[in-house]
Design a protein that fits this description.
By secondary structure, the protein is mainly α. The protein has one domain. The chain has five helices and no strands.
């Protein structure tokens, strides 16, 4: 076992933005103020904005890919890197949505510190 890993962190799986946000929220949720929870609940708006931007980028990439010669299209490695990047971006957006939902739920329950 790596010295930085504990049995608890090993059970979290591969590191992702969404998992990191959830771990941090779970650790802090009982001491966050109402204002802090409101701020985090607003992350849903950021996620929506980022998803719209990602959608526009994908549409542009699709149009460019469909309308160019095979000579100018990216190779297999570049294409894989693009898909990996998109996967990370979607995980980030999902993490923001989950964070916003968790904070909003905590606010609705009236459990702010």
């Amino acid at each position: 076992m790596d010295r930085s890993e504990t049995p608890k962190t090993q059970s979290l799986g591969a590191p992702t933005t969404s998992r990191a946000l959830q771990v941090l929220f779970d650790a802090a949720k009982d001491v966050l103020s109402k204002d802090e929870l409101s701020y985090l609940a607003d992350m849903g708006e950021l996620a929506a904005s980022q998803s719209r931007s990602l959608s526009d980028s994908l549409m542009t990439m699709g149009c460019l890919y469909a309308n160019t010669d095979s000579i100018s299209k990216p190779g297999a490695q570049t294409t894989a890197e693009i898909f990996w990047s998109l996967s990370y971006q979607l995980d980030h957006i999902a993490g923001l949505i989950e964070l916003a939902e968790s904070a909003a739920y905590k606010l609705q329950k009236g459990c702010a510190a």
